[in-house]
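Reference record
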Amino acid sequence: MRFLFKYLTFIFMFTSMSAYASTYPLSANTEVFGDVTTVTPKKNDTFSYYAHTYDVGAFAIIQANPGVKENYPDKQTKPITIPGAFILPTKQDGIVINLPELRIYYFTPGEVHSYPVSIGRVGWKTPIQDGTIVDKTKDPVWTVPDSILAEHEAQGRPIAPVYGPGPKNPLGKYAMRLSIPGYLIHGTNQPTSIGRRVSHGCIRMFPNDIEELFNLVPVGTPVSLINEPVKAGWRNNKLNLEIHPILAEYPMSDADLKTLVTNIINNQMQGKSAKVNWTLVDQMIKEKSGVVEVIT
């Protein structure tokens, strides 16, 4: 019965709009948006439900709630942390995709639009590279690359070589092609995959998020794929810090991570009189939860 309820819940929530904001006004004095909140788990809740409802990635919720089983958060009594706050990346031009954060930003005059994404899994990495949007397609046809066909064949689960428009198309209803050969920003027919490292390198988005972004972005928009696991920014005269897990393809020692964090904080503190809570910073370096914390 629980499985049936979850299935019906997925059908409902992935055909409805997220309840969380995705567009924020830019301000010279604010570099942090959204809020870290908590919810009391209810029967039949799942992390996938929270991810879509609050427009955050599934892995972000997993990282923020260590030890909680993602399909059974109602089996424990403490509140679930929803990491709905984010700090702007250092690059703020056109589309910026911060790979370790599993999040996309689209900067327009006076606003930023931000959504969770999926990126390439280990072995099918999403490149760190600059490009542009060269084409936009509604109801795309997916011609499966030979490499993906071969992978599925080797795993004993062959797939069709071509997928036309419809609910079985892994690209969903919208796709934007990058100037980086072979890479797209697109929807999905597997919404529970959003916010995870599961793709063959492309950028996946929730169906409602890609529809919104698709209608905002013109062809020719610059796209930057970046690796920024540590971000810091100010809000209400308080310095905030955000540390994400390090990508396996771009390893970093604990010592190097601590140096990076220290340098970023010190740069932010120039000319400021606030006092940094370095004990909290050390804890954040250890946990790498991705949750935004006030450190002054």
Notes: Confidence is low (pLDDT under 50) at residues 1-17. Helices lie at 2-13, 47-54, 58-64, 146-154, 207-216, 254-268, 278-287. The radius of gyration is 19 Å.
